[in-house]
Amino acid sequence: MTAQTVAEPKTYATALDSPTRFHHLLSAEWIKLWSLRSTYWVLGIGPLAVIGINVNSALSNADRLAHQPELPPAPPPGRPELPQMLFDPLASAFVDPAWQLLMIIAGSVGALAVFGEYTSGLIRTTFAAVPARRAVMTAKVAVMATVMLVLGTVTAGASFGVTQAILQDHHGMSIGDPGALRAVAASALLAPLCALVGMALGALIRHAAGTVVAVVGVLLLLPTLFMGETYRWVKEIGNAMPLTAWRALVQNPGRDYSVDKYPVSVTEGWIVFGAWSLVAAAVAVAVVHHRDV
Amino acid sequence: MPCGPAHGTVGRVIEANELTKRYGATTAVDRLTFTVRPGHVTGFLGPNGAGKSTTLRVILGLNDPSSGTVTVDGQPFRGRPRGLRHVGALLDAHDVHGGRSARSHLSALAHSNGLPRRRVDEVLEEVGLTTAARRRIGGFSLGMKQRLGIAAALLGDPPVLLFDEPLNGLDPEGVLWVRGLFHRLAAEGRTVLVSSHLMREVEHTAQQLIVIGRGELIAAESLAEFAAHGTRLTVTVRTPEVARLTSVLTKEGAAVRGEADGSCTVTGMGADRIGELAFHSRVLLHELAPRSASLEEAFMGLTADSVEYSAGDAR
């Protein structure tokens, strides 16, 4: 440190002065994410588990199809073939429990990124260093969404590629087939969507156990509560849930699944995805602004 | 020590004006008005629950005041996009994530404020944590966490520094180091505010005092002024004839209290007058020693009415 007198002490602050840039906050959040061991564990094992479940499904389906003594009885002459009787290879890439697991993982990681700061007290250090709280949260949301998009893309791409390769003798699809790219894209986007929902809930609740329960409740339990078709409005609420929208978006258009009275259209599915992501991000950024920490 | 410089000091002044913070029915900080100036260490004293931490949080914009204002450099801290180059603070050494290394923690903070990377190594060196830099904070002792918190406060080389109970958990060597550091920071022309609930922690460090109790301002003055008006003279007397001396002195208006070691503490009368009275009554004295109350006693005397949590039978 240079020698300084009491009268001319202005060397600090100005000496270190540098402009205020948003990318500084991005790199800070990037460091925070990757300096925790749990990040590597969860983001490493999570996709492997999801891909594993899907691959296992494809293998057992391929095995069953290979050892099938004969094809299902053909419809009587003059009657159209029943499409729902046909094997759907795409369903093996997007097995429901596997992707529900991904939803929980992504939601929890997003939630942890926020409630972890609150439960540890780090949030006070963070906001004392950067009083612009909304900027901090925006950076956190951006970093998390990006990382999760990569994670989702890898998981969805690998699930699709490996399962369809396994099922290549049983109408296995390529990415150019109708509905294939849409299914992969929806599954890739499911991870950032759920992470953002987790962040919003983490910012609202700020406690570990409560937030994780809320993540599971909102992402997985809520859709099952609104499944009945007795009342249209009940089903419409259920249709507005990410899980329901995802199911509609990964459905193979080459197979007839029209058993629902009030199905979710593809457009509606994308709207649900977009709306949930935007609202969740906005909530996560907005709620930290006025609250004491 | 000369007072702060004539110009440029505004940038380092903390100014609270009628600052009030309520939590429901509880008033944690009550119409607090004070000014903290650069160039010396200001001790921020008060019993537990007096509102010191709340005040510091409000200064940092972590908590919004219910009414009143507090500014650093003439504007609320909350309005600044980045904080580390303006105010460095150690509020609670536990306000870190135990899963990160000391280096990662400081590195994220440095990045967030666009500070050069070398600052991380410089402050680690400064607080003596260079060898522990890659260890997880969760395994740190409280003293090491305090050092890390001080490192974070110094990161932006700020003109204003706030420390909340920074001596907790430090070993004697650490306490000496911190005192030296605070002296140096103040001598460099910075504003240094150090909170404590123990006078002995700040009496060798601070030149200025702000004393609060139950959220209200009790005193804001120099340590010397505080010592002067806080002092009440007491005299320690040792005699084999306690009962007779007591009756003689109380008759003349003094108060005598017997101590556990057999001596008496006399208040309200000078040592010369006590000696004179004892001589005339032919009471033998073994010791006659005037002493002034310590700063700690002055502090306790001032805040006695405002102790939020006191043991059932303190006296």
TrEMBL record, chain A:
Source superkingdom: Bacteria
Keyword Transmembrane belongs to the record: yes
UniProt KW keywords: Membrane, Transmembrane, Transmembrane helix
Chain ranges passing through the membrane: 40-59, 98-120, 141-167, 179-201, 208-226, 270-288
Protein name: ABC transporter permease
Native source organism of the sequence: Streptomyces colonosanans
